[in-house]
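Input (structure):
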């Protein structure tokens, strides 16, 4: 029997809803819509508005949110919403509701994404018994692991985006000092996120004594892609290079020689700049451990709404 599941991927700014169908072990996602969180008082109100637009009435839901899950709920640091399974279950008259971390869902969905959902970034010799790292910048810097076991795969969410930033170049030291004026601790998420890209751009403008021409991450990426602002392009280049170093370090710390999957909402928007950037060079810049990280192939998810597949998988793979 075909299952109908309400799935959602919820960040600080946007909430993407869809209906997922599960049939014979395959997941398909239909009727995806993106809503602005600021337009709704809470998640139940937004989900109710979405359900009114689709014909099928779900009886179960899995909602992925950008934050750690504590007691089947998520408290956002950058949104007035709160994800609480019991509140949503009552508001929408559902029989089951699961709350998961957004990168946990993204990792769970990797195996279900349709053909053509990836772009190769770096070849490698994937080790089938080693973990796969799923990492990427969006509202924050998400990170999760797909771990193979004798009883199938396991997904482990982490807060690896909050490790301390370790600058290597003189310019990166200046960047860290700029951010440290506003934050007592400079984590990699202070650079590798939407707000992080803004921080990099602001720092470069301050270093070169030029007023910022853009104030939002979308404006900076658009200016970089369009070539209208050299500092925006430089900021995006630094962003990609730092991400390469952080991803390579994560392979070392987790043993993720099964591969690296890059997700998040930013990289597809700067795809050509990213593929031509120093990401791979910095990823491999590990001294005597270069061969260790070189084993891991790297690919980029280009399909929008990829975490929705994983949200559906949560309710179909009980051992995840």
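Output (sequence):
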């Amino acid at each position: 029997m075909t299952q109908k599941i309400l799935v959602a991927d919820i960040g600080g700014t946007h909430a993407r809803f869809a209906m997922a169908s599960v049939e014979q072990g395959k997941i398909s996602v239909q009727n995806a819509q993106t809503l602005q969180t600021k337009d709704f008082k809470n998640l139940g109100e937004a989900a109710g508005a979405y359900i009114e637009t689709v014909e099928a009435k779900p009886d179960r839901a899995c909602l992925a949110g950008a934050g750690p899950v504590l007691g089947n709920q998520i408290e956002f640091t950058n949104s007035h919403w709160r994800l609480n399974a019991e509140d949503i279950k009552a508001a929408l008259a559902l029989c089951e509701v699961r709350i998961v971390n957004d990168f946990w869902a993204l990792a769970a969905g990797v195996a279900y994404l349709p053909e053509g959902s990836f772009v190769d970034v770096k070849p490698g010799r994937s080790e089938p018994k080693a973990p796969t790292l799923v990492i990427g910048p969006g509202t924050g810097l998400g990170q999760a692991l797909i771990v193979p076991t004798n009883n199938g795969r396991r997904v482990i969410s982490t807060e690896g985006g909050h490790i301390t930033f370790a600058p290597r170049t003189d310019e990166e030291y200046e960047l860290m000092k700029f951010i440290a004026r506003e934050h007592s601790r400079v984590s990699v998420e202070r650079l590798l996120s939407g707000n992080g890209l803004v921080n990099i751009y602001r720092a470069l403008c301050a270093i070169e004594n030029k007023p910022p021409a853009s104030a939002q991450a979308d404006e900076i990426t658009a200016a970089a892609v369009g070539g209208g602002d050299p500092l925006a392009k430089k900021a995006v280049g630094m962003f990609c290079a730092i991400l390469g170093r952080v991803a390579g370090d994560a392979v070392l710390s987790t043993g993720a020689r099964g591969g690296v999957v890059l997700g998040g909402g930013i990289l597809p928007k700067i795809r050509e700049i990213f593929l031509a950037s120093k990401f791979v060079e910095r990823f491999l810049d590990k001294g005597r451990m270069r061969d260790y990280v070189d084993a891991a192939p790297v690919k980029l998810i280009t399909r929008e709404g990829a975490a929705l597949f994983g949200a559906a998988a949560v309710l179909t793979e009980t051992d995840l």
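Notes: The domain at 118-302 is CATH 3.40.367.20 (Hexokinase; domain 1). The chain has a mean pLDDT of 91.
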